[in-house]
Design a protein that fits this description.
Layout lengths: L7 E6 L8 H10 L3 E6 L9 H8 L3 E2 L19 H7 L2 E7 L1 H9 L5 H8 L4 E5 L3 H5 L1 H12 L3 E2 L3 E4 L5 E5 L3 H14 L7 E6 L4 E2 L5 E2 L6 H12 L3 E6 L11 E5 L3 H12 L4 E4 L6 E3 L18 E3 L3 H8 L4 E8 L3 H11 L4 E6 L11 E2 L1 E5 L4 E3 L3 E2 H16 L2
Parallel strand pairs: 1-2, 1-4, 2-3, 4-5, 5-6, 9-12, 9-14, 12-13, 14-17, 17-18
Antiparallel strand pairs: 7-8, 10-11, 15-16, 18-20, 19-22, 20-21
The structure holds cytidine-5'-triphosphate.
The site of cytidine-5'-triphosphate has 15 residues, from helix 11 and strand 17.
Length: about 400
C-alpha cells in the first residue's frame, strides 16, 4: 500500500511507557516513504530520547517553544513555530496519547508545544491512547473520548492485554504495525478515486517503415505517466497503456501495458475500456503509418524515396462512439485557433472534457517537465491554468474529473 508514501506526518509523543515503541513506529512510517517530524512533551523524554527519534526520523525533534540556548554559541534560541509545523503536516498522529494530554486536548489547554500544534492543526488528527485500565475506564476518560470524537479526531483503539501496572485489560497502546495499518486503511477509505478504474494512454507510437526504422514523435509520456501516478495515489485502479517511453513508474499500483504502434494501442485501449469509469487519452498517437512495412531493411538505392502513408484508427474517437457511462477525456495539441479547434475535437469525438495544450505557450509541450493547460468542458466552459509542473497539472485534471464524476 503506497498510501503513506510522501505523506508529511507530525508525530506527537507524550509521556507514557509506550513511548519507547515510537522508535519502531517512526522507522515503520519512514520505511513506508512518509516524512516524519516529531514533537514530544517533556515527560515523553523520560521514556525515549529525542536523539533516537531524530536519528530515525532524519529530522529535528521539537519539544519546546524555543530551541535550547547553546552555551558555546552567540546564537539566540530559535522560535519553534507550532503553526508552521501543524500546517506542514498532512496529518497529526499522537502516539502514545496519555490521559493527561487527551484531557488537555479535549479542553483546549495549551501548556506545551505539542498541544499548541494540536490547537493549530487543520489536518486530520489520529491518536492512540495508552493508559492503565482504571484510567481508561474512568468516566472522565470516556467523556474525553466523546469530546475528541466530536472534534473529528480519530481514535486508534487501545489493545487488550497486560498493562505496565500488572492489570489486565484495555489500555495498551496499539502496536506500531497496527497503528500503521489503521492509518493506511483509514486513508485508503477516504481516497476520492477509491473503487474507480481509470484507463490512461501515454507516450508516442512508433509506426514501422522497415525492421529498423519507424515514424515517431517527440512525446516523452511525462504527462500521461504523471496522471497515472496521481490517479493511483488517489486510490484508483489504473491501467496505463504506454507507447515507447524511457520513463519508469514510481507507483507499483499502476498496471503498465507497453505497446509500440497505434494499432497495438487501439487494441489494448478497447480491451480495457468496457470496465473503466474514466478514460484519459494523453498519448501522441501517430495519425499515419506506412501503408507497407518492408520486411527487409530498405537499401539506399535511389535519390528519392516515396513512402505511402495510411491513416491510423483514431482511438479516442472510436471510444467516444461506444462509450456508455465512461467519462472520456482527450488531449488537443494545437498551434493555432487553439480553443476553437479543441472545442471541435471535443464535440466530434464525443468527449466529456478536453485538455488543451498550445505549442505557442512557454512551458508547455512534449519533453518539458512543466505544462500549461486549458480545460474545456462539455458545456463549453473554458478553464485556463498557469504553467505548473506536470505532476501538479495531473492533479488539476483529476480534481476536475473527481468533481464532475461525483456530481
Ligand atoms: N488520438 C487517438 N488516436 C489517434 C489520434 C489521436 O486516440 N489516432 C487522441 C490523442 O490521444 C488525443 C486526441 O486524440 O487525446 C487529440 O489528438 P490530436 O493529435 O491533437 O488530434 P487529431 O484528432 O489527431 O487531429 P489533428 O492532428 O488534425 O489536430
Amino acid at each position: 500500500m503506497a498510501v503513506l508514501n510522501g505523506k508529511n506526518i507530525l508525530l506527537g509523543v507524550t509521556g507514557g511507557i509506550a513511548a519507547y515503541k515510537t522508535a519502531f513506529l517512526v522507522r515503520l512510517l519512514v520505511k513506508k516513504g512518509a516524512n516524519v517530524k516529531v514533537v514530544m512533551t517533556n515527560s515523553a523524554k523520560e521514556f525515549v530520547t529525542p536523539l533516537t527519534l531524530a536519528t530515525l526520523s532524519k529530522n529535528e525533534v521539537f519539544s519546546s517553544f524555543t530551541d535550547e540556548k547553546d552555551e558555546n554559541s552567540f546564537k539566540e534560541p530559535q522560535w519553534n513555530n507550532h503553526v508552521e509545523l501543524a500546517l506542514w503536516a498532512d496529518f497529526f498522529l499522537i502516539a502514545p496519547a496519555t490521559a493527561n494530554t487527551l484531557s488537555k486536548m479535549a479542553n483546549g489547554a495549551c501548556d506545551n508545544l505539542l498541544l499548541a500544534c494540536y490547537l493549530s492543526a487543520k489536518c486530520p488528527v489520529y491518536y492512540a491512547p495508552a493508559m492503565d485500565l482504571d484510567m481508561y475506564q474512568h468516566p472522565s476518560t470516556e467523556e474525553t473520548f466523546k469530546k475528541l470524537e466530536s472534534f473529528g479526531n480519530i481514535q486508534i483503539p487501545a489493545a487488550f492485554g497486560e498493562l505496565a501496572s500488572g492489570l489486565v485489560g484495555q489500555g495498551r497502546m496499539a502496536e506500531p504495525e497496527e497503528i500503521v495499518s489503521f492509518l493506511e486503511n483509514d486513508l485508503l477509505k477516504k481516497l476520492p478515486l477509491r473503487g474507480k478504474q481509470i484507463l490512461i494512454t501515454a507516450g508516442p507510437t512508433y509506426e514501422a517503415i522497415d525492421p529498423v526504422r519507424f515514424i515517431g514523435n517527440h512525446s516523452s509520456g511525462k504527462m500521461g505517466y504523471a496522471i497515472a501516478e496521481a490517479a493511483a495515489s488517489l486510490g484508483a485502479e489504473v491501467v496505463l497503456i504506454s507507447g515507447p517511453s524511457a520513463l519508469r513508474l514510481e507507483n507499483d499500483f499502476v498496471k503498465l501495458i507497453r505497446v509500440t504502434s497505434a494499432e497495438e494501442m487501439y487494441n489494448a485501449a478497447h480491451e480495457y475500456f468496457d470496465t473503466c469509469d474514466v478514460a484519459i487519452l494523453s498519448a501522441a498517437v501517430a495519425d499515419y503509418r506506412p501503408s507497407e512495412v518492408a520486411s527487409e531493411k530498405i537499401k539506399k538505392k535511389t535519390d528519392d524515396l516515396i513512402l505511402q502513408l495510411t491513416k491510423t484508427k483514431d482511438i479516442l474517437a472510436s471510444l467516444g462512439e461506444i462509450k456508455k457511462s465512461q467519462f472520456l477525456v482527450g488531449f488537443a495539441l494545437e498551434t493555432e485557433n487553439e480553443e476553437e479547434n479543441a472545442k471541435l475535437k471535443l464535440k466530434k469525438k464525443n468527449l466529456d472534457l478536453i485538455v488543451l495544450n498550445s505549442l505557442r505557450d512557454k512551458g508547455a509541450g512534449f519533453q518539458a517537465d512543466t505544462n500549461k493547460i486549458t480545460l474545456i468542458t462539455k458545456d463549453n466552459k473554458v478553464l485556463p491554468f498557469p504553467v505548473k509542473p506536470k505532476k501538479e497539472v495531473a492533479k488539476d485534471i483529476l480534481e476536475y474529473i473527481i468533481e464532475q464524476t461525483n456530481a
